[in-house]
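From: lab user (bench 3)
To: helpdesk
Subject: output format question, protein + NAP

Hello, I'm new to running complex predictions and I'm not sure whether the block I got back is the full result or only part of it. Here's what I submitted:
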Amino acid sequence: MFDSNPKKILENSYLKGRSRSIKQNDIKSLNEQILYGDEFVFKINSTMLKKKTITLIAAAAVNDALGKDNDLIWHISEDLKRFKRLTSGHAIIMGRKTFESMPKALPNRTNIVLTRNKNYKAEGALVTSTVEKALVLTKEDIQPFIIGGAQIYSLFMEYCDRIELTRVHHEFEADVFFPKIDASKWKISKKEFVSKTENQPYSYSYITYEKK
Ligand SMILES: NC(=O)c1ccc[n+]([C@@H]2O[C@H](COP(=O)([O-])OP(=O)(O)OC[C@H]3O[C@@H](n4cnc5c(N)ncnc54)[C@H](OP(=O)(O)O)[C@@H]3O)[C@@H](O)[C@H]2O)c1
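Helpdesk reply: Thanks, we reran it on our side. This is the complete output you should expect:
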């Protein structure tokens, strides 16, 4: 029977060609193979993909505001520390614009950048061009994180198993917005409210969603 869950379709799909697992640690050679190697063909390892909890992590305001002028809008240091704690040691997948909004690749994480530009170079990061290739690059990581921005959240949301959302209880002017979470597909498994303080003007909630 036709399976409409995209992650399941990926799990069951074997991209055709010469199968060669990615063993090299060398970032440059991986980039060349993924982007330019006309012979390089990879296979989605279905067992590996099934084991993964693909997790989207974002901070969005009540009006879904995410960012403005290719930057974040607010600064909540506790949330940034939580982001670091959750993502450290894991693969993080992001769009080219989010990568360029950061001073450098995030340390202690495998940075993976999506772009349609075949010549794009990103220091300290793997560069690739599709959801499938990005997931292959996460290799054995059982919890790769999708870290934004808006385009990449929209692209990956249907492949994700979990959303770690920080909902900031304030409206902001923005030029990029978090996509709507479809309540028929996602259920809240955890919620924690954090009050505003003298030093931190916005209250917010950490909300964990699991795919139904
Ligand atoms: N609040 C948060 O949690 C959070 C988190 C992350 C980012 N942000 C904010 O979000 C904003 C950036 O988000 P954004 O939506 O403008 O950009 P983005 O998602 O970071 O990156 C967009 C880029 O990704 C590449 N891309 C998109 N779809 C693709 C596809 N199907 N295949 C291959 N490549 C694809 C394209 O790169 P090319 O143009 O090079 O082809 C595109 O321009 C910034 O303001 C940032 O601060 C907020």
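A quick orientation on your result: The helical segments are 6-12, 27-35, 46-51, 77-87, 96-101, 131-137, 150-156. Let us know if anything else is unclear.
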